[in-house]
Please model this.
Amino acid sequence: MNNQISNPKVEVPTGISCNDKDYINSLLSCLKEMSKNYVMAMTEASNESLYEKHKQAFLTLIALQREAYELMFRKGWYVIEKAEGQKIGQKSQMLKQEYQDLNS
Model:
């Protein structure tokens, strides 16, 4: 049984030169890293005005990140795995337990 969710893969040239997939993958990695940095900047902002500026930049970055991911998914360059209901339930229970442990 195939648990992968994907689109038909768009083939790209191989070899030493970068191709569209390489560029978009690099962009996605960069946007992910920048998003992490803006979250840190927001937590360390010294005043509300600075926090709001970081927040707006962060929201722009995550929108771009999502757009890059969706493009890669549409091109068949990003494959996700379909999770079984049982696995989702187990993960949910584990997270609930961890949350309760943190609050006790």
